[in-house]
Amino acid sequence: MVDKTKKQIMPQDLYNAFNETKDKNANDIEAAAQLLETKYIAKVEILEEDSQFQGMYFSTPEMKQNMKKYPEVMCIDSTYKIFSLRFSLMFFVIEDGEGRSHIVAVGILVNESRPIVKWLMEWFKKDNLEAVKKTRGFITNKDLVERSVIREVFDWGRLFICQFHTLRIFGREVCLTKMKITKEQKENALRCLDKMVKSSCL
């Protein structure tokens, strides 16, 4: 992420956005949104229910530019229990032609219930309407709610399981008794799969 001075925005900046004002008013959502809008020129949308914060979506101009440049494959992942409020942080990430990852949008959610996740996905779609039409694949973890919402909101795209969970699934399903193989055969098969998954070419 890059702010208006072209200074690289690190994940720590996200933490700071929710904590810079803690001496005046702890966990001030409005102050965090104002900081994102003024310092980083971000588009910010907030979801509330009964005047209670439920989620935030934001994306900077630099993020949107990267989305326009490399929209073909989208990775979506979450980090849990961040900040003092224990929110979920959801990243929308693309990869450029040199294999470098770029965050193109961020969601901060009180939880990952279907209505909140759907609200976030729909805002991402609305904010990147032309670019996201070119997205052909979505890589996620195995979270069923997230995958179900993606199928609904981005019904033209294909869903893929991320590398980490692919390897975990194979590690669990390649079973000695079920497949009637030896321990050595299982280890060889998983080692081969690991090399295939992490190969730099097809």
From TrEMBL:
<dbReference type="InterPro" id="IPR048324">
    <property type="entry name" value="ZSWIM1-3_RNaseH-like"/>
</dbReference>
<dbReference type="Pfam" id="PF21056">
    <property type="entry name" value="ZSWIM1-3_RNaseH-like"/>
</dbReference>
<feature type="domain" description="ZSWIM1/3 RNaseH-like">
    <location>
        <begin position="44"/>
        <end position="154"/>
    </location>
</feature>
<dbReference type="InterPro" id="IPR052579">
    <property type="entry name" value="Zinc_finger_SWIM"/>
</dbReference>
<protein>
    <recommendedName>
        <fullName>ZSWIM1/3 RNaseH-like domain-containing protein</fullName>
    </recommendedName>
</protein>
